[in-house]
Amino acid sequence: MRKNSNIEDVAKLAGVSISTVSRVVNKSSTVRASNRICVEQAVKKLKFKPNLIAKALVKGKSNTIALVMPRYEGIFYSYYALEIIRGIGTICESLKIDLLLHITHPNTNLNLSNVGGIIFAEVLSERKQLEEAVALNIPTVAINNLIKDLAVSCVTINNKQGAREAVDYLLDLGHRDIAYISGGNLTQAAKDRTQGYKLALAARKIPLRGEFMIEGDYSRKSARDAAEKLLSLKNKPTAIFVASDDMAQEAISVILEKGLRVPDDMSIVGFDDNPSSIYGAVPLTTIRQPLMVMAQTAVKELDLLMNGEGKISRICLPTKLIIRDSCLPR
Amino acid sequence: MRKNSNIEDVAKLAGVSISTVSRVVNKSSTVRASNRICVEQAVKKLKFKPNLIAKALVKGKSNTIALVMPRYEGIFYSYYALEIIRGIGTICESLKIDLLLHITHPNTNLNLSNVGGIIFAEVLSERKQLEEAVALNIPTVAINNLIKDLAVSCVTINNKQGAREAVDYLLDLGHRDIAYISGGNLTQAAKDRTQGYKLALAARKIPLRGEFMIEGDYSRKSARDAAEKLLSLKNKPTAIFVASDDMAQEAISVILEKGLRVPDDMSIVGFDDNPSSIYGAVPLTTIRQPLMVMAQTAVKELDLLMNGEGKISRICLPTKLIIRDSCLPR
DNA sequence: CTGAAAGCGCTAACAA
DNA sequence: TTGTTAGCGCTTTCAG
Description:
2 copies of one chain form a homodimer. By secondary structure, chain A is an alpha/beta fold. Chain A has helices at about 5-15, 20-25, 35-45, 50-60, 75, 80-95, 125-135, 160-170, 190-205, 220-230, 245-255, 290-305; strands at about 65-70, 100-105, 115-120, 140-145, 155, 180, 215, 240, 265-270, 285-290, 315, 320. In chain A, strands 2-1-3-4-5-11 form a 6-stranded parallel sheet, with helices on both faces. Chain A has a 4-stranded parallel sheet with strand order 7-6-8-9, with helices on both faces. The longest helix of chain A is centred in the first third of the chain and has 17 residues, at about 80-95. Chain A is elongated and about 85 Å long. Chains A and B meet through helix 4, strand 1, helix 6, strand 2 and helix 10 of A and helix 4, helix 6, strand 2, helix 10 and helix 11 of B. Chain A binds a DNA duplex through helix 2 and helix 4.
């Protein structure tokens, strides 16, 4: 059976005490060169890997953080989820932090008490866990949500402003009949984008039209249905703002299939700046959101918190309108 | 600062020894009812959560498994990666196994020695880590790969056979000019599908045509490029087998945009049975691969291995041809 | 059925 | 600069 060598074996082989071994392994205080070399050789010969579990126990905290991600189909299959997992995963890897992934359901209850910190990818559905984490005094940061009533750090994208920018752009182009395919209301981000859409129209005193606002769920199917509904309207919109690039691409496919042209007959703005938005049938004008930066910032904030050096912060990252070829003036 | 109550606090409050507390918490040996109740009450009052780190230390193994996933753009943004993460994540959640996610680069070196088990989502690029895991005697299972030269369990999808089925179907429909958009050669699965394509043609003595075999990388962009290349050929194929549904959908979009029809002018078969393949412009005929079953099987096998009850097994899961509307006889 | 005590592998005073 | 030692919180013999 497996029998990893431990610090004692190394000490014995190197002819020093375990403290010395610990010191050289952790590069803490200075050790006489000759001893360090002995230890290093022993480490190599024995293939010694420090037992992180023991270390975590004595340190009273682990180097592990949990990423809590709900498994709603919609959000999970979105570019967002993937990019967040990838981003946080990559940063953790480079910071040598262990990443625990929790794919949750509203009623899963996690034992959060043994991680060093937690990142919530979405809180609308995880409110209880968030509160528990705060109560347990575990360093926590929420992403893509702005939480004001709880003492947690958050780093978010300015979804409302981003959506507003998108619609403003369409408005500036002369469009007045602007439809919207939303991302539902299961996430704060999706709700914020809807807010932004409404705000932009309200600012120009353009009344909201119920038939122009269609609820999607970030899936391609929902976008297809929505686009078809929009195209079958007596008074069609001249432009559509779509809450994600993936959905926008699907909407474009539908429009093209019906023999209409984009942007000539219909202008489209997406949201994400998904890399594939450059390469579709028509390069997509969209809102770029710095997902990677958000992931990175979240992990760094958390790391600070975990080391007792940080304090609660609320960071809001700006979006940027990326103009490509899917819009034309009205 | 945080000060979780520990087993000793509970023991004191319940008026018993820590051994007794341990027993009731772990439901191990029988404890007198009155004592059990006392302990349970104390646990509740103190909100006692056992420290899993200490437990792991004394048990000499953790309840944590690592999922190692390379971060090649192509594979990472595929339906496969997402479904695997989601599948394994979900199963682990229900089995109360902690899931460590490692998003790796070829040259990241992980400290694998402190997990209870490892699942490799892809081994072509992770061969060294795999070998190390085996050398360290850590329970390991590889998914979507069949490894014969190493003592590891693997559970895989029969990619070769699946691809062959797809092409055979086209062949049976009378097609002879069958093109192929591949998933590259960075993963075993992608290579196997290419094998399957070649085998199917060879079995009917149809010569391979270089211009009919285009390398993709599972991204929509690569599929778009490939489809355009295929459509610009003097002698166009009459059917295309595409190594993923996502890519197949993109190919269909391209074809439709050029004013051609699917399946009338071009038959398409995908691979994955991605849920969205039902809802696209044309419901896609495809190869269903039981990704969830694979994930589930992998975790269960690993769990067995971790509990010393299992032995090396190599499981190959069958695919299934799902006939929808994207193919027509020639 | 219950409790005392010996560790699991490591870190961090403290002493030398 | 180095070694000794006391834990970190828990499980598990082994006695009682």
